[in-house]
Amino acid sequence: MTTPQRHIKKGHKTTGPNALFTLACFCALMIVGVACVPSPDCDDRYIPDDALPNMTVMSYNIGNSDTSDARYSLRIKKIAYERHIAKKIAQFEPDVIALQEVLSPKACAAFSEKNPENTCSEAQPAARRILGPDYSIVCDERHHIECVGVHKRFGKIRGVAPGEFVMDGARTMPLPMAPCQYGDCKSDEDTCDDESTVSHVVVDTARGPIRIVHTHPTAIGVRCLQAQVQQTFRLAANADIPSILLGDWNFDPARTTDVVASSIWNSYMGGVHRFEDHSPLDDMCRPASTQRYGARSLDRVVTNFARGECFIVKSSELDADFEYPQKVARVDHNAVICDLNDPR
What we know:
The chain is α+β, with helices and mostly antiparallel strands.
């Protein structure tokens, strides 16, 4: 099992990220009137020595950029690679895992796959194959591509039998704007990618209930992205139980290119809402990149009750020992794993 690397730098301060964020806040305030609070310095991300991890949380976007086969567009096509990813996930033994861009049973039901090397030739749903029988699994109500798994030893998803797979079992928020198909969406229009989701479940654990909010807002459509970020936080901010918010957020709060979404994000960090971003930090005290081929921090885990931090396992490292005789579209996000302490 990979050992997490602590990224907290005692006594280290940097004005770079906060200066950028101050500019982002000012711009957002001028544009849409959204107030925000500055991100904490690295020094403020202190984890007490007695906060021993008692739960492991993981978020992993297992999609890819391959659109050459419309039946498997942006999804894992080869069984051998899917099994490899499943084996790597199992090594971390997550108590809670959020998977984005999972191959939907609905997509496979639309045709008859004759090639036994391809994933749609399998009878079980992809999320079940990847996580195995020890997880209770629910996916979003619309397209069933955003799935949450909870290990049976950790807790029980309300309304779901232990070990059960419910294809549409995660309560899913309505799209805040008109839907558009991914290839047709435009950034400046009031539309949402039809596959974007904000969904949630409640998990009963030995320490008490936890709300899991699984978010994957639109990548194209600025105003929809902002609305879905608000949806995500409001689900937890208005809840009377502790919450974990995780997924592929599709924006980086440390970059001024995502000004308004970042200001919404930071308005919920600390203060009265008590949310904390557990993302690992890079050498500039910014959230570390979770992209395989980029530098943005898109995949993150936030809580309003836990202590601890996350670490990143690069997809290139997960793929290092994978051998397959033909070209395979690889996962294009890194895995985020968090060792957290529930202090209750």
